[in-house]
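pinned: reference chain
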Amino acid sequence: METRKVQVTGGSTYTVSIPKGWANENDVEAGSEVEFYPDGDSLLLSPRSEAERTEGTLDITDLEERELTRAVMTMYVSGFDVIALEGSKITTEQRSTIREATQSLVGLEVLEETRDRVVIRDLLDSSELSIHNAVTRMRLISTSMLEDALSALRELDDDLARDVIQRDDDLDRLWMVVSRIFRSTLRTPKAAEELGLPREVCFDYHSSARQLERIGDHATKIAHLTLNIEEPLPEEVLDAIGDLHEEAEDVIDTAMDALFESDSDAATRLANDAREHVRDIDDRVRQIDELLRDLDPARAQLLGLVVDSVLRSADYGGNVAETALQKAAPTPFP
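pinned: its structure tokens
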């Protein structure tokens, strides 16, 4: 840390010098323009940057299938606008994997292909993306997935179960978008300014989006379990699981309402209601466990997994409520 004294020039203008080492490292010299971004009681200084698209290059010679997919996703989330994948000779299998990974991410398309190079470009303008809208969409998809997964279980509807499984891809795409936006706000204050949200709020949205993505995973798990059931399940148990789902859904919705609530007192009240409700759900789970003891071990184990997924979904809603409480809490800034 270095300190500088604020001086007055011309009788009314405050000036302060910047460290020479920092200026040299960032190509700032006499006549250069810099950008200032107010952030609470801080003022962030950044070299003025042109609107250039950032390009990243990755050697994929030894990467196949899942590792290659993960590499593309990592480059995307890291914020690269142009991703150049290079190798001594890119195989047909690698090209297929790259196309699948590209199609699974929002805004990407293959721009160029040669024998040893594939270039992917992000066509979206990051300044037009809304992390609030993305999280809102994730909320709708994840809760509808959980509801439909349990409907498929009750009716043994394999088509509906498969539809739930497919929707998980949509949820994952949005999760990647939220992660990409959030990481961009960490790299530069300009990204947060374009979003119109403080970086702390972006962090809260990112944390909550992770919980919604996990709820979608559990809905997908229930859908997969449904595909392995052939005989109808006991109506009494299904009704109990349905009641459990209603309570879990109430926790998730109340927590998300708290997260999006701009009034701190109202947000705190909603978040605390959601947290209290999570504790009440444990009693209902114990009641369902008693019902499962009367079933044969295989069916009891399967339904136990379903109950666990619904309970975990409620817990994730509770995590969102914790985040909403932190978001609503007073800040240490004056």
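why pinned: The radius of gyration is 25 Å. The chain is about 60% helix and 10% strand.
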